[in-house]
Amino acid sequence: MSDKKIILFGASELGKKALIYFNKENVAFFCDNDINKIGIKINDIECIGFNKLLEIHKNYKIIITSMYEKEISEQLEKNNINYGIYKESIEIYYPIEDLLEINLGHFFYKCDFNIKLDKLTFFQGGSTILDYAFLQAIAKKFKRKKYLEIGSFMGESIKCLSVVCDECVSISLEDQELDQFFFSKHKSNFGSYFMNNICNVKQIKGDSKKINFKEISFEPDFVFIDGDHSYEGVFNDTQKIFDLIDYNETIVVWHDFRKAITKEIRTETVKAVFDALDEKYKKNIFICDNNLCGIYVPEKYLKYFSFNINSNEMYSYEFEMHKVIKNLI
């Protein structure tokens, strides 16, 4: 890489990924053609406009980080500005070979109780059935009483936990933030729908980046992090949670350690978790082999998990669907 600092042309989600990839200390500015972004800071990096870029470009390396790659490249070429292009296929690196897998089937096999998951929709944006089952199984097996969830969407997961835990707290965005998502799916806004009116569920609405968790006056023994899935969001939520919890007692689960379709490890999420934590926690973080979850397991509970993945074993699960409920707004 050149010794010159970088200007990322495209102050978008792709630009934020590129900022992580190139390391913040190597990036001088964002640049964008959107006048509403000029002058603001994005992840503490100032965004400049194209006119400013024309003045200073010779001192920097320009990288396009935008879906409008063709238009921006023509704009730069017209002004004789050399550039590179950041491709989204570039993965944020984390040495995944160092990440131990939990044998999920073996964990369920050793549970001496049934799992009942009520009112699952299987709607896009939710978790998989083995994610919900894993959360409820942990709560039952380790007698968890105080459950904290970051990012509740429609409220399916916290509903599954509310029948096991005494107290549940949800930190989630205002429901209207989901208007566009549900509109694009031709649905009314079902945000928080399944956790409304549950007596042992307290809802706190807002951006977890702006909330002081310590002011909530809640000391969880079980946490599920499933909020903002960007690097910055996962980093923020992880760091705040581990500043709050008793790490010798509290179990923490992250969603989206894997990609939903391919089950490949989502290295951006994993890197954010490991970057956020002190070294003493890292040896107790694992990934499940057959759902989308990562987990922090306190030392005293490690004996209940198997890390032996046997190629000659295949676990299966017995399910019954009792009824389908039509939920209306």
TrEMBL record:
Pfam families: Methyltransf_24. This is Class I SAM-dependent methyltransferase.
